[in-house]
Specification:
By secondary structure, the protein is α+β, with helices and mostly antiparallel strands. It has six helices and five strands; from the N terminus they run βββββαααααα. Helices cover 46% and strands 19% of the residues. The chain starts with 14 loop residues before the first strand and ends with a helix. The mean pLDDT is 85. A five-stranded antiparallel beta sheet has the order 1-2-3-4-5, with no helix packed on it.
């Protein structure tokens, strides 16, 4: 089961969300220091390339740092919604896997994911702006429209630098966009599907009566 609480892996912290099993877990830890340079009159020793290894007590997966640089494995901080369309999910997961190494590229991919989501919802104008406007006319909640525009504008900055408040080279920005995409999918895909399921479970005679009432 995936925990709703996310704690970012840190080299000097020994309890966080494991990037292998996505559970908050205690970590066993070990360090290996490599003697790299000796020089000078008194043979000063400089230690570099400190390899830090954490091992998840839940799944046994290994997490690696060299000095203070996170190395392995790639992190997906927030998994995509189960109802996310496959074409959107592919872009989301690609962005999630590179967000730690290249937040800018991740932001650009997430903007493309929003464009693809609009297509999946039936809006096919070449302009993502017009597609969002069409979804607004169809009655999406204001917070969904705002979330769509945040992803669009921030992702656009990653492709075409401009002056806005978000830093697309900050992985926290990419993480925020991933969360917003999940919020959007939950609102426009998951909730309608869930409600339709409730409706379809009504007896057929009652559903027919509702249809006739609404004519």
């Amino acid at each position: 089961m995936i925990s709703n609480i996310y704690i970012e892996p840190q080299r000097k912290v020994y309890k966080y969300t494991c990037p292998h099993c996505n559970t908050v877990s205690q970590m066993e830890h070990d360090e290996h220091r490599f003697k790299e340079d000796t020089y000078g009159e008194h043979e000063h020793i400089y230690l570099r390339n400190v390899l830090t290894i954490h091992r998840c007590k839940c799944c046994g997966g290994k997490i690696l740092w060299v000095d203070d640089k996170y190395i392995y494995p790639d992190i997906i901080q927030e998994e995509p919604c189960g109802d996310m369309p496959i074409s959107v999910k592919q872009l989301y997961r690609e962005a999630a896997l590179i967000s730690n190494k290249s937040p800018r590229a991740a932001c650009a991919l997430l903007r493309l994911a929003i464009d693809r989501l609009c297509n999946e919802l039936g809006e096919t104008d070449p302009s993502i702006d017009k597609n969002i406007a069409a979804l607004v006319k169809r009655g999406v909640p204001k917070y969904v429209q705002q979330a769509l525009d945040v992803v669009r504008v921030v992702g656009n900055k990653a492709v075409h630098p401009g002056v806005i408040a978000f830093d697309v080279d900050d992985k926290a920005t990419a993480t925020m966009l991933m969360h917003l995409i999940n919020v959007i999918v939950d609102s426009v895909v998951t909730e309608p599907n869930r409600i339709d399921g409730f409706y379809q479970n009504l007896p057929e005679t009652i559903r027919k009566a509702i249809v006739n009432r609404d004519k």
